[in-house]
Amino acid sequence: MFSVPLAGGRWLHVVYRAFAEDEGVDYLLHDPGWESAELLAADEGHFTGPGLSWAELVAVADNGLPGGSTGDPHARLLLLLPAFGDDAVPSGAEDRMAAALRARTRVGEPERLAAALVEEQGPCGPVHWTAAQGGYRTNDGEYSFRNPAGAYARDAARLERIARALAP
C-alpha cells in the first residue's frame, strides 16, 4: 500500500491486492470521519475509473503535505496516474509528465512517453468533467464511480464529498 496525505486529515491510498484470484490495484479515498473509504478507481480484470481529473491529480501530487509513502511530487504523480482521465488537460501537462518521468524512471525518451500517456490516459482514456448542480465535479466515463449516470455511480452526497476531499 502507498499513501498520499490530503488536507483535512484525509488520505489517498493505492492498495495492491495480491490474493489468489483477486489481484488488482485499488485507489481509495479515506476520511477518518467517514464510515468507509471511497473507491475512486480499480485496476484488475475490469478497470473502473477514472477517478481523478488532471487538476485533482496535480493538486494531490503537489500538495506538499508531509507523511505518506513519499513527499516527492514526481513520484506521487506517477503513482496516481492510472486513476487519471481528463479530456481537458492544460498545455503544460506533457512537460509536467516528462519531468516526472525524467526524475523517477530511466525511460529513454520521456517526452515521447509523456505525450502518449497524456493522450491515451490509461484503460478508460480521457473523460469529460463537468460541474454538477451541487457544484461538485463529475465525469462521463462509462466505468467511472464519479459518473452519476453510469452503472457504477455513487449517489450525489457521496460524489459531493469525494469532490470536496479532492478539491484542488
Account of the protein in words:
With 168 residues, the protein is an alpha+beta fold. Strand 1 (2-5) and strand 2 form a beta hairpin. The model has no long low-confidence stretch (mean pLDDT 94). The protein is globular, with a radius of gyration of 15 Å. The chain has helices at 54-62, 73-80, 93-104, 110-120, 156-166, and strands spanning 2-5, 11-19, 22-30, 38-43, 129-131, 137-139. Helix 1 runs antiparallel to helix 2, helix 2 packs across helix 3 and helix 3 crosses helix 4 (110-120). The strands form 2 sheets. The protein has a 4-stranded antiparallel β-sheet with strand order 1-2-3-4. Strands 5-6 form a two-stranded antiparallel ribbon.
Write the layout of secondary structure elements.
Elements: E1 2-5, E2 11-19, E3 22-30, E4 38-43, H1 54-62, H2 73-80, H3 93-104, H4 110-120, E5 129-131, E6 137-139, H5 156-166
Antiparallel strand pairs: 1-2, 2-3, 3-4, 5-6
Helix pairs in contact: 1-2, 2-3, 3-4
Could you give a quick summary of the protein structure above?
The protein is an alpha+beta fold and 168 residues long. The protein has five helices and six strands; from the N terminus they run E-E-E-E-H-H-H-H-E-E-H.
